[in-house]
Amino acid sequence: FGGEHEWSDYRTLFDAGESTRIFGAYAQLGIEFGPLSARAGGRVDDHARFGTATSFGADLSYEIADNLRLRASVGEGFKAPTLFQLFSDFGNEALTPEKSTSFDFGLALGERTMAGRRFHAAGTVFRRDAEDQIEFASCFGNPAPLCATRPFGFYENLGKVRAQGFELELGARPGNRLTARAVYAYVETENRTAGSTRLGNTLARRPRHALTVSADWLAPLAGLPLGADVPLGGDSFDNAANTVPLDGYQVVTLRASLPVGDTVELFGRIENVFYTRYQTAAGYAQAGRGAFVGARLAL
């Protein structure tokens, strides 16, 4: 159980600013009984501007066979608009909080946390339904009345949206020096707001396909760990009207670390090795190639 209290302030050079606060309290009960692991909990949020909201969640895990585990969870969510979303140059004071319900169900073979495992795999299906989800709306070709005072775009509530799909994860240790992992996600998103001109459209900036592949190898020379990560993002749309496409991308990162004695480790990495040019939001390019070096000290 626990609680938290957050105060937020927003000010600019041109106005006196705004402030708000939110208090949250939560509790969770769990049980571990043989192959069964289960938890259930609830949370109450009290927001100065939007009142009180209650949300619940639960999860269950059961080992149905040796190293094969069934997993499931269900949960509710509440998210109030930020002061920036309400009062900035892109703000919309009519925004209301998001509310959502989600569930997932899956199987896991092996345990990722056990160093002796040579192989692990997991598959999960999921769905998330939300009401009044907060999204950014471009004013390019948008006849919305708010574009008269927010010409570069504004935040808005979408009546109903859904995201559903599945995720697959594979991991292997073919030898004591090599570890490889891959995670693939397929996500369908849809605007389900009745009467909307965007009914049935894909949500903005949500790629349907995403894949991350990584590998780590412990070189014989001085126990030098070498690694690589390759995230791949699929095609998407930049806007809710689905008229501005964004191309998919793949980026390669290489990393290495070198222990020096028992307490010092030197490390380095090169991000975007092949200088891939890509965008996750139209008109905003991502960083090019970057190199980083550093040291860690463990006492």
Layout of SSEs?
Elements: E1 2-12, E2 15-33, E3 36-47, E4 51-65, E5 68-79, H1 83-87, E6 98-109, E7 119-137, E8 154-172, E9 178-191, E10 209-219, E11 224-233, E12 236-237, E13 245-246, E14 249-250, E15 253-260, E16 264-271, E17 279-281, E18 284-285, E19 290-297
Antiparallel strand pairs: 1-2, 2-3, 3-4, 4-5, 5-6, 6-7, 7-8, 8-9, 9-10, 10-11, 11-14, 11-15, 12-13, 15-16, 16-19, 17-18
Task: Please give a structural write-up.
- By secondary structure, the protein is an all-beta fold.
- It has 1 helix and 19 strands.
- It has one helix at 83-87, and strands at 2-12, 15-33, 36-47, 51-65, 68-79, 98-109, 119-137, 154-172, 178-191, 209-219, 224-233, 236-237, 245-246, 249-250, 253-260, 264-271, 279-281, 284-285, 290-297.
- The longest helix has 5 residues, at 83-87.
- The relative contact order is 0.08.
- The model has no long low-confidence stretch (mean pLDDT 93).
Provide tags for this entry:
mainly beta; globular; 299 residues; two-stranded antiparallel sheet; 1 helix; single chain; 15-stranded antiparallel sheet
Short précis:
This protein has 299 residues and is mainly beta.
Number of E strands: 19
Share of helical residues: under 10%
Secondary-structure-based class equals mainly beta
Order of helices and strands: EEEEEHEEEEEEEEEEEEEE
Distance from first to last alpha carbon: 33 Å
Query: Mean of the pLDDT scores?
Result: 93
Residue runs with pLDDT of under 50 for 5 or more positions: none
Query: What is the molecular shape?
Result: globular
Largest sheet: 15 strands, antiparallel
How much is the radius of gyration in Å?
23 Å
How many DSSP H or I helices? 1
Strand content: over 45%
